[in-house]
Design goal:
Elements lengths: L2 H5 L6 H14 L5 H13 L7 H15 L12 E3 L3 H5 L3 H13 L3 E2 L10 H5 L2 H18 L3 E4 L3 H15 L6 E4 H10 L9 E8 L2 H6 L4 H10 E4 L16 H5 L4 H18 L4 E4 L2 H13 L6 E3 H7 L6
Helix pairs in contact: 4-6, 6-16, 8-9, 10-12, 14-15
Length: about 325
Amino acid sequence: CGRCTVVCPMGIDIAGAVRKMREGMTAGGFAPPDLYMAADRAMATGSPLGVQVKALKKTIEIQERKTGIPVPLDVPGADYMVILSAMEVIGFPEVIGALSRLFQQAGVGWTISTQTFEATNIGIQIGSKPVAAALVGRIVAAAEGLGVKYVISPECGHAYSALKWEGPNLIGRAYGFEVVHIVELLDRLLAEGRIRLKGKDGRKLTFHDPCQLVRRGGIVQEPRRILAAVAGNFAEMEGAGMWNICCGGGGGVSTSSRAEKLRLEAFRCKKKQIDDLGGVEGVVTACANCRNVMEEAMDHYGMELPVLGLSELLAQYLEPSP
């Protein structure tokens, strides 16, 4: 999660050292078997969970019926290309409908590529540069093929750092587009007055900072400005922002079945942060993996709390169309 690097008094990049160890273990054949299988699926299908275009289109059809808004696919020259994590497609598909509603009101020209729609980079998670480079290269090829100006990284922690910070080094050149996180874009659209809201959520809500966004991405104030616009009773966890504690395990940990016991035990630190606030009625985050990990852990500990995606929460309070 990188917290050790931030607090190290000697300035040692401990998380970076762990990454190098992971690369060596993977090269030697000692990584968790589940991660090797996920990497094979990603190389074969484009998705570590094996989510293919047929499933994406079915999910989109359902969201189109719910919102009445068509989702643009493979549109050349669109300003923005949206990529999604597999967990969003199969676990939290409402994010697609939320983006449709938000972008329609804001007048954003966007598209999803059916050639490459997956944001998850299992190569980064397992520690395989060849796999990581191949997956980044597919996104770059799709974006540059469509001629978009921006690629929107979804509510996924490592996908943003993998594409924005590590990607150019992995493929050996700069992109012909800019990478922007969905939270950055929504914050910008709000500031420009292109997203107009009505009402606020009255529940006591708190925000979980995904480690990769805050410590590797520097996205700290943007989600809080969004929450200030829609959350009428927002409470910060102790040590929020740059110092926040991991949800219990990143995407690589989530993929490894043998890590489940450890992941549930690690969540106890996050549970304490939430419990110490007292009376929290919902946890908001901006990472589908964090959301999934926390939902499973909350079920395990009998915590009856909803975990909300930031984009969906914002879309709930859009000003109705005239």
